[in-house]
Amino acid sequence: MGIFKKLGWFFKAEKKRYIWGLIFLLLADLAGLIPPRVIGILADKMGNKQLTLSLLAEWLVLLAMAAIIQYLSRFGWRTMIWGGAATLEREMRSRLFAFFLKMDATFFQKHRTGDLMAHATNDLNAIQNVAGAGILTLADSILTGSTTIIAMLIFVDWRLTLMAILPMPLLAIMARVLGRHLHTAFGESQAAFSRLNDKTQESISGIKVIKTFGQEDEDVADFDKIVDKTITINKKVYRIDSLFDPAISIIIGLTYVITIIYGGTLVVNQTITVGQLISFIAYIGALVWPMFAIGRLFNVIERGNASYDRVNELLSEKSQAVAPKVDSAPVVSGDLDYQIDRFSYPDDPRPALQQIHFKLRQGQTLGLVGRVGAGKTTIMKLLLREFDHYQGQITIGGQDIRDVPAASVLGAIGYVPQDNFLFSTTVRDNIRFAAMDQDQDAVEHAAAQSAIHDDILHFSQQYETLVGEKGVSLSGGQKQRLAISRALMVLPEILILDDALSAVDAKTEETILENLKHDRQNKTTIIAAHRLSSVMNADEILVIDNGQITERGNHQELLQRAGWYAEMWAKQQVESQLGGEQHDAE
Amino acid sequence: MTQNKEKKTKQQSDHQEPTDVTTSTSENQSVWAQSIPMKEQGQIIKRMLKFTLPFKWLFIIAILSATALSLLNVFLPRILQEFMDKYLTPSRGTTRVILGFAALYFLGVLLKAVLQFVSNYLYSVGSEKALESVRRALFSKLHTLGMRYFDLTPAGSIVSRVTNDTMSLMDFLQFFASILTGLLGIITAYFAMAALNGTGALVVLAFLPILLVAIWYYARYSSRVYRRMRERLSELNVKLNESIEGIGVIQEFRQEHRIGQEFEQTNGEYLATRKAMIHTNSLLLSSLINLLYALALTAVLAYFGLLSEHVFVEAGVIYAFTTYVQNFFNPISDMMDSLSFMQDGVVAGKRIFRILDDSTIAPQQHPDASGEITAGKIEFRHVSFAYDGEHKVLNDISFIAEPGQTIGIVGHTGSGKSSIINIMMRFYEFYEGQILIDGKDIKDYPMTELRRKMGLVLQDSFMFYGDVASNIRLFNQDITDRQIEEAAEFVQADRFINKLSRGYHARVIEGGTQFSSGERQLISFARTVVTDPKILVLDEATANIDTETESMIQEGLRRLRRGRTTIAIAHRLSTIKDAEQIIVLDAGRIVEHGTHDQLLAQKGRYYQLYQLQHGVDATAEPTA
């Protein structure tokens, strides 16, 4: 029952809705008591030949009225209570979403997208069930249960009532036990489904390998095996699921047997009439659901509670970023002074960066090169305010970036990450993602800058073309270039290309770099790259290894040093990848 | 009983509200938005039902049990009616009679329980088996499709067809079950009423037209609302999914506010459609059926009341008759409720059949193909090829590779290098020219022979879930552990494999991400070596490889090529410098052809490429 308390804030906010819902529910229950009794009375009257026309009319009017009241109040409670559940789901989903937007990279590394989605769908579903089915079954078992039993006591016979409802608690127990088994079995079935899903996914992704080795039949056989297993597991689910109806039948059957024996005896003794017995049988029918519901209630509550706790646990996680990223503030500008003595990631004692010092005057370009995992991206992350707990300081225009809102810093930066993510909207809206108020000219300019404009003109609907499954599927290089134009749209003081040209061919890369140089004369650019040609024209190039600067200077200086840079340069020259450095087009 | 049933079903269906979230939900939207013409719906349903045929006995027994169950439901009230009218009303019931009736009734209940179990269980198992057979059919079909299909169709949506859409089929069969049991219940209830009192039954039947109108209206109206709701939901989940995946971008560009607002809007729209659905259901679904039931009950009682003026109406008859009225109306809201499943099922079915009917079949060999590759000579004779049948990516390609020779193919991106591999491996069908192996048309070799004798090493080495050994062996159980180890040693993959804690049985997780790209390459070399192909086709891997890996791979490649006819797409000149022939491709044509030295001497395209690659000091470097 704890979950009802935990959701107290919601029920409080929706007090009116639920009070009305309960009133309607009670009204429906009370109206529902009328037909069984009327049937019984009329049966008796007809049997005794006591039925007059006016009496008949009176009872029939009562019946019709009960029918209409039931209809209206049913409509009432359904709209109220199911609507409440839907509202709760919306509310929780909003909270989760707002929360996701606030969270930092650490959080999203810890939780995979699939898990977060599961919270936002399955868990929310379990929670909204509490506000819908949970409230309903709780109220119903109390309201319908008690009114029906009271009606049995008043209209029929108290001894018969007590005897007949004896097997009823079995319904609750059965619902609870079977429900729990079903839940476990269902979990296994879900897991089997996932396996099937993974297998299919893998076969599709690896289709070329499978074809190459002519393993189609074997792959199908493997799939068949998994399917066979799935069937076995699902059979268990159906077995349990198919037990509910028979179990209800038998338990209610017991009640009927008691009613036949004891009720029959009472009728023969003329303690009650046949009509009363008929009413009584109908009332038994009305008790089935409330009793069954008690058992189900436990399951609904249990699941809802677990889900609510899971979601709350998630919501209680704190973002590592010191300042919230949401506000807007004046943007910093000026020379970049990067003075980091030491930085290590949370939960990792080893230093990720040591003694990274450089100055970049406004308008200059910095190149960062080095092995994968050397620390290039980490250098950028500090600039992007993803972590603030480092020794040293970073200033832009003399302003320590930790002293201003994160928005002031981020507003100055156009960041193009390695894994460029595009949204499934139009090409245009992807480009002006961060500047929705910009017009077509600005968009086209940015696209031209990043050498993607001509590609876009070849798409079926040009700038209106949707990106992703429903529209054009882009090559890696096209994605990167779109991501660059997206960053250019905000006219950033500092443009950061984090290995963002890796899938672009050498010629296009040259064009883009040339455009940038021309168009961003007073703006700073930082380029991290694997391919040295990306940085060869930079004002300063830092070679990073193990979080430290091992070599620095401009292209010529570094070549003369004959160190890692020079070696890589030679290697890349000799083995420069002939049209194969990217999987663009073809 | 009606009321209870009503709440139960409603709750279940509410519980089952769509929460299926997959990456491909976005595309559901488009299909949801269109409605399918009636005739097509009928065809789809017919085809889907065909999948149940192999399991017809399960369904037949389930349906027979359901029929027996309906009859029993007619019979049980009759027992009580007998009991009331013969023994209770006249107060004649002795303890023996009473106990006898109780026992008879309980026996009926036990039988009912058994029938319920049998019909439910067998029907579900039958549906499950039918569903899985659709999955098998889909999966097998996918393996007969050509690469072109996979180029054009996102993997996510294919997976969704095999897994999610087939699930809707299950719901679809449940829809049939509820229609069937519903109709059985209605018909038997009607005859039971007619047997008791013909005119009374007609009174109930008079409500049927109203009922049909209600069902028809609900079906029409609700499917529209339902569709809107589903569209909004998938939109919502796509947004959610995308915002999580693209959170970095959103935050970096400080678009939290806008994205948050857009989400709120969609969230609100979904709530609105869901409320509309709740309204529709509350107005038209079980509440309305209940109202009609209550009114029918009133009418029936009015009729019997008037009748009792003239004839004696027994209490038991009233009991039995009113129970039948209930049985008559009971299944209807259930039936209406499952209507949405039909919608889902038809839409899913349409998508499933689109795959099953897809004619992008993988290239076929000649039916009487029986050749055997012995030497490994390859000849291209005037081969032209277009992926879309229109824009040629290969144009009049001719060359001969003698057994054991290496041919290097060089060219810009888009020059057609990969296409040569693609048609040679028979991933795509070509229609112009001829490819000969050992002097015989490539189509005259059975596919298995081609696959066995031609080894392809792909750029991206795909890893399967399993262990290292299974990734080398794949499904070929004829390959022994010894052979696997030898293959790994041969390409020198054994060095890193032996360092793994469980060696060849080290687990490989999804995508093999625990291995470096170089290590993955070596495993894929071993995979090829172990099959000992006569002909080797190489699509050289390049991107972001460090020095050590580089030398590792180069050595592996050298060993791999030994004694095999090799067609290599080169991304490094070092690989092909010593090739017997080098082909330079441009825009799908062979523009130059010769050895490294010959081509350099020509001072043409190759020379340019070579220079471009070597930068300024290429001329200074002595050529090999």
TrEMBL record, chain A:
It is a multi-pass membrane protein. SMART domains: AAA. It is found in: Cell membrane. This is ABC transporter ATP-binding protein. Keywords: ATP-binding, Membrane, Nucleotide-binding, Transmembrane, Transmembrane helix. InterPro entries: AAA+_ATPase, ABC1_TM_dom, ABC1_TM_sf, ABC_transporter-like_ATP-bd, ABC_transporter-like_CS, P-loop_NTPase, Type_1_exporter. Signal peptide: none annotated. GO terms for molecular function: ATP binding. It comes from Lapidilactobacillus achengensis. The keyword Iron-sulfur does not apply. Residues 338-571 form the ABC transporter domain. PANTHER family: ATP-BINDING CASSETTE SUB-FAMILY B MEMBER 10, MITOCHONDRIAL, ATP-DEPENDENT PERMEASE MDL1, MITOCHONDRIAL. The chain crosses the membrane at residues 18-39, 51-72, 130-154, 160-179, 243-265, 277-298. Residues 19-303 form the ABC transmembrane type-1 domain.
